[in-house]
Amino acid sequence: MHFSRRERAFLTGVLVVSCLLGGLAGYAALTDELHLQSCGGVLDEDVQTVMWHNTWTTGITFLGFALIAFFTVGIVPVILRRLLSKMGGA
Known about the structure:
- By secondary structure, this protein is mainly alpha-helical.
- 86% of the residues lie in helices and 0% in strands.
- The chain is built from 2 helices and no strands.
- It has helices at residues 5-38, 47-89.
- Helix 1 (5-38) packs antiparallel against helix 2.
- The two termini are 20 Å apart.
Protein backbone atom coordinates (compact mmCIF):
# COMPACT_ATOMS: atom_id res chain seq x y z
CA MET A 1 0.00 0.00 0.00
CA HIS A 2 1.53 3.30 -1.09
CA PHE A 3 0.90 6.33 1.07
CA SER A 4 0.90 9.93 -0.04
CA ARG A 5 3.20 12.44 1.65
CA ARG A 6 0.29 13.77 3.70
CA GLU A 7 -0.70 10.27 4.83
CA ARG A 8 2.89 9.42 5.75
CA ALA A 9 3.20 12.56 7.85
CA PHE A 10 -0.10 11.79 9.56
CA LEU A 11 0.88 8.17 10.23
CA THR A 12 4.29 9.22 11.58
CA GLY A 13 2.63 11.54 14.08
CA VAL A 14 0.15 8.85 15.08
CA LEU A 15 3.00 6.33 15.48
CA VAL A 16 4.92 8.65 17.81
CA VAL A 17 1.84 9.36 19.92
CA SER A 18 0.84 5.69 20.07
CA CYS A 19 4.38 4.70 21.16
CA LEU A 20 4.25 7.29 23.93
CA LEU A 21 0.84 5.98 24.97
CA GLY A 22 2.17 2.42 24.96
CA GLY A 23 5.16 3.43 27.08
CA LEU A 24 2.96 5.14 29.63
CA ALA A 25 0.63 2.15 29.74
CA GLY A 26 3.59 -0.21 30.22
CA TYR A 27 4.87 1.89 33.09
CA ALA A 28 1.41 2.11 34.64
CA ALA A 29 1.09 -1.67 34.48
CA LEU A 30 4.21 -2.02 36.64
CA THR A 31 3.78 0.75 39.23
CA ASP A 32 2.44 -1.55 41.96
CA GLU A 33 5.01 -4.22 41.19
CA LEU A 34 7.90 -1.74 41.23
CA HIS A 35 6.69 -0.27 44.51
CA LEU A 36 6.67 -3.72 46.13
CA GLN A 37 10.14 -4.46 44.76
CA SER A 38 11.54 -1.20 46.12
CA CYS A 39 10.17 -2.09 49.58
CA GLY A 40 12.17 -5.32 49.63
CA GLY A 41 9.47 -7.69 48.47
CA VAL A 42 11.81 -9.68 46.18
CA LEU A 43 14.22 -12.35 47.37
CA ASP A 44 17.77 -12.22 45.99
CA GLU A 45 17.40 -15.51 44.10
CA ASP A 46 14.21 -14.29 42.40
CA VAL A 47 15.64 -11.04 41.01
CA GLN A 48 16.27 -12.39 37.50
CA THR A 49 12.85 -14.06 37.31
CA VAL A 50 11.15 -10.87 38.45
CA MET A 51 13.17 -8.80 35.95
CA TRP A 52 12.03 -11.00 33.06
CA HIS A 53 8.44 -10.91 34.32
CA ASN A 54 8.59 -7.11 34.42
CA THR A 55 10.07 -7.00 30.93
CA TRP A 56 7.39 -9.35 29.60
CA THR A 57 4.57 -7.38 31.24
CA THR A 58 5.86 -4.04 29.98
CA GLY A 59 6.45 -5.39 26.45
CA ILE A 60 3.02 -6.94 26.09
CA THR A 61 1.30 -3.85 27.48
CA PHE A 62 3.34 -1.56 25.22
CA LEU A 63 2.62 -3.60 22.10
CA GLY A 64 -1.05 -3.93 22.90
CA PHE A 65 -1.69 -0.27 23.54
CA ALA A 66 0.62 1.02 20.79
CA LEU A 67 -0.79 -1.27 18.09
CA ILE A 68 -4.42 -0.69 19.03
CA ALA A 69 -3.91 3.07 19.08
CA PHE A 70 -1.95 3.08 15.81
CA PHE A 71 -4.48 1.04 13.89
CA THR A 72 -7.61 2.71 15.25
CA VAL A 73 -6.36 6.28 15.01
CA GLY A 74 -3.93 5.93 12.08
CA ILE A 75 -4.55 3.14 9.62
CA VAL A 76 -8.34 2.84 9.81
CA PRO A 77 -9.04 6.53 8.99
CA VAL A 78 -6.64 6.41 6.02
CA ILE A 79 -8.29 3.28 4.64
CA LEU A 80 -11.80 4.67 5.20
CA ARG A 81 -10.86 7.95 3.51
CA ARG A 82 -9.55 6.05 0.49
CA LEU A 83 -12.63 3.83 0.29
CA LEU A 84 -15.03 6.72 0.64
CA SER A 85 -13.22 8.75 -2.01
CA LYS A 86 -13.37 5.80 -4.43
CA MET A 87 -17.06 5.29 -3.79
CA GLY A 88 -17.85 8.99 -4.14
CA GLY A 89 -15.71 9.44 -7.24
CA ALA A 90 -17.03 6.41 -9.13
